[in-house]
């Protein structure tokens, strides 16, 4: 049970009801990460836009690499909720090798962000990442540090049926399609 009140989909009105409908259509259901933000629908809408831009926008990092970074960051933060949700999404994607150095870097940027240095970027370039791919990886790391803190501070636990909201793709790369953390 979360530490704060959540509005359930059947009680939602206005913008919140619209957001819940969009999320359920795209993700197969409304996860608690969305419901815990229900008291502030405008912030939830902005969060969804950011999530879609970081995780679904076409770019040099594959969806699998983004999900793998999400899991690495969430593990480093001991966020079981996000590990479960994003590991399920990752498991639903076509396998492609994710460089272990990328995941080590993501965990290090999570636990020691003040230690970021030019050598980190040089290391990512040796893995074949372009500057755009590096930026996208940084955005995934930053985003999941934010979401992990939202989950941990509100006391979310993994829902018993969470897998139904973990579709690895939205059927399109259009970030306007819906989505969720």
What does this structure look like?
The protein is mainly α and 181 residues long. The chain has one domain (9-165): Up-down Bundle (AhpD-like), CATH 1.20.1290.10. It has eight helices and no strands. The protein has helices spanning 14-27, 32-35, 41-55, 63-76, 80-91, 100-111, 118-126, 131-154. The chain is elongated and about 50 Å long. The protein starts with 13 loop residues before the first helix and ends in a 27-residue tail after the last helix.
Secondary structure elements and pairings:
Layout: H1 14-27, H2 32-35, H3 41-55, H4 63-76, H5 80-91, H6 100-111, H7 118-126, H8 131-154
Helix pairs in contact: 3-8, 4-5, 4-6, 4-8, 6-8
Q: Quick one: biggest sheet?
A: none
Write down the domain tally: 1
Q: Which CATH-level-2 architecture?
A: Up-down Bundle
Low-confidence stretches: 170-181
User: CATH superfamily, please?
Assistant: AhpD-like
* Order of SSEs: HHHHHHHH
Q: β content, as a range?
A: under 5%
Kindly report the CATH topology: AhpD-like
Binned, the helix content reads: 55-70%
Query: Any idea what the shape is?
Result: elongated
In the CATH hierarchy, what is the class?
A: Mainly Alpha
| Rg for CA atoms | 16 Å
- From the N-terminal CA to the C-terminal CA, the straight-line distance is 19 Å
Using DSSP, what is the number of strands?
Answer: 0
DSSP helix count? Answer: 8
Mean pLDDT figure: 89
